[in-house]
Amino acid sequence: MKALVYTGVETLAYRDVPNPSPDVGEVLIRVESSGICGSDMHAYLGHDDRRPAPLILGHEAAGVIIGGPRDGERVTINPLVTCGTCPACVAGRDNLCSTRQIISMPPREGAFADFVTMPETNLVSVPDAVSLDKAALAEPLAVSWHAARLGLEALHPWADRRAVVIGGGAIGLAAALALKAMEIDDIVVIEPNDVRRAYLNDHCGVEAKAEAEGLFAVVVDAVGYAATRAMASQLASPGGVIVHIGLGEDVGGLDIRRMTLQEISFIGTYTYTAKDFRDTAQAMFDGRLGALDWTEIRPLSDGNTAFRDIRAGLIPNPKIILKPAIQGD
């Protein structure tokens, strides 16, 4: 099969690799659509030791089951593989499973390829009325759905219902859409890139600004740099909640004194539970997360250029979807 292989810092090769073979309980999926995630970019830039080269990246995917009793079924993929039996899994917090694996991270190759294998339990059927390009957004949307849910559950009952999202990429936009679906109406997205900010305002149904005014009960940091954590520390209202999704850099930024004196909660969030993933998929299918028409489609063979364009800040769309079935020039 063909795959887009990360071979070194800022280097991707579109080349032939062996077809994957499903293990017991797994199925083979022909990948139709696979999104470029921020974590893929971190790996591409050499900033993620968990994803050493050579490796097939990509974990935001949808496709069609090949073979077996579900042959031909259209599915979106929950890429997080957990044991199902440890205390975290039994408690419904399977994203904290001590033996969790995710495709695009050893030992599991990713979905920037013609085929990928997954446990059958990780697949959610996609209605015929929903395109697989949109279905591939279930994973990033679930990340933000999980974060939004945790943030709102941590709010005091008396808190106002204002939220700000730092970062207008796919995760930030998805967080805004998830909060909106959870009946938060006053939401601002902070996006410094003029082109991206204009796209969000014109096409995505959210209010995007270069900076925010006032204080917010819920602050979502979808970037994760010291500067954005410092911003989050200042934007959170007394008794508010900072929900941290971004993995831009490891340390710095939080104003611990202000957070302590104002009893501001900080929640680190990682991926999603299996229930969050299913709930997100259903919200997508029901139209509660909007039109989801803010992606750019490119052939998988053009993946190297797509990564370079994202790196250069040339892409207004929050998400690029790579499609193995489309042939590049």
Characterise the protein shown here.
- The protein has ten helices and 18 strands.
- With 329 residues, the chain is of the alpha/beta class.
- The protein folds into two domains: 2-137 and 292-323, Quinone Oxidoreductase, Chain A, domain 1, CATH 3.90.180; 144-268, Rossmann fold.
- Strands 3, 5, 6, 9, 10, 17 and 18 form a seven-stranded mixed β-sheet that branches.
- Helix 4 (138-153) packs across helix 5 (170-181) and helix 4 (138-153) crosses helix 9.
- The protein is globular and about 55 Å long.
Instruction: Outline the biggest β-sheet.
Output: 7 strands, mixed
Beta-strand segment tally:
18
- Tell me, briefly, the overall form: globular
CATH fold-type name of the largest domain: Quinone Oxidoreductase, Chain A, domain 1
CATH architecture of the largest domain: Alpha-Beta Complex
SS element count, helices: 10
Q: What does the average pLDDT come to?
A: 95
Order of helices and strands: EEEHEEEEHEEEHHEHEHEEHEHEHEHE
Structural class: alpha/beta
List keywords for this structure.
329 residues; alpha/beta; Quinone Oxidoreductase, Chain A, domain 1; Rossmann fold; seven-stranded mixed sheet; six-stranded parallel sheet
